Amino acid sequence: MKPDSKKPEAATTKTPPPTIPPPNWPPEITYLTDQIYTPAVSLELRSKLSRSPSDNISWIKLASDLIITPCPLVSITTITDEKHPACGQRGLFAAQHLIPDSFICLYMGEVHCNSLSDTDPNSDYDLNRIETKTDFNPCLDSEIGLSVDASKAGNESRCTNDYRGVAERPNAEFRDCFIQVPSLKRADGLRWERRVGIFVLSAGKAGKRKAGIKAGEEILVSYGKAFWEGRKTLATFRKDFEMLRIAEAALEL
Ligand SMILES: C[S@@+](CC[C@H](N)C(=O)[O-])C[C@H]1O[C@@H](n2cnc3c(N)ncnc32)[C@H](O)[C@@H]1O
């Protein structure tokens, strides 16, 4: 069943209702239960996020009961370990044992166009700059040029740190997925829409990661070298020596 792209659905423009944020949520950041959109993201562009799952058969389709806000699987903690390179900042930790390949939470934020005018060059929370398994420059949908920035609004996923300097390797990764959202046009009242989620890494061929992520362990992804190289360039330009030190340390690992 192909989505009807002639007329975008106005019902999807609704702003999600406010929810009580999880403990330790940064008060200056808006807590989201669904992604929001910059004015530059037209309804027509948004409708392109809606695809029949048969278009991308390998992408996981998440049942709506897996998407719970706040997410009970994780907790946000301020890092106090001085050896941790993000000491003093927040990190995302497993609130219970998470098995390999399991879904943790969606990467929520403000969806924006990848044009210079609609991108915040200072954001540390833009998927545009983070490398995922599927794409070198993942975005939300690189074909239509959309990405997600959680610098001003997001959910727990914005607290996920990079593994460099913390652990030997990541234990989680970003993956493309589909979720079901309400549709006025479909007989069943639902359609599939593209999202990016954080998932526990698979056990691996040798089963080395079969333990998944233990309760209390920090959830760590790889932002990719490009993220840290970008930070290094920006830090050099701004003469921000602390940012430069962190970026160089991450690149050395
Ligand atoms: C997406 S945020 C991660 C959450 C962040 N720690 C917070 O409290 O909001 C990305 C920023 O976290 C910090 N960070 C994440 N992983 C790091 C690492 N391995 N080493 C140093 N800083 C890290 C950097 O400041 C980076 O720009």
Automatic annotation (TrEMBL):
<dbReference type="InterPro" id="IPR046341">
    <property type="entry name" value="SET_dom_sf"/>
</dbReference>
<feature type="domain" description="SET">
    <location>
        <begin position="72"/>
        <end position="224"/>
    </location>
</feature>
<protein>
    <recommendedName>
        <fullName>SET domain-containing protein</fullName>
    </recommendedName>
</protein>
<dbReference type="InterPro" id="IPR001214">
    <property type="entry name" value="SET_dom"/>
</dbReference>
<feature type="region of interest" description="Disordered">
    <location>
        <begin position="1"/>
        <end position="25"/>
    </location>
</feature>
<feature type="compositionally biased region" description="Pro residues">
    <location>
        <begin position="15"/>
        <end position="25"/>
    </location>
</feature>
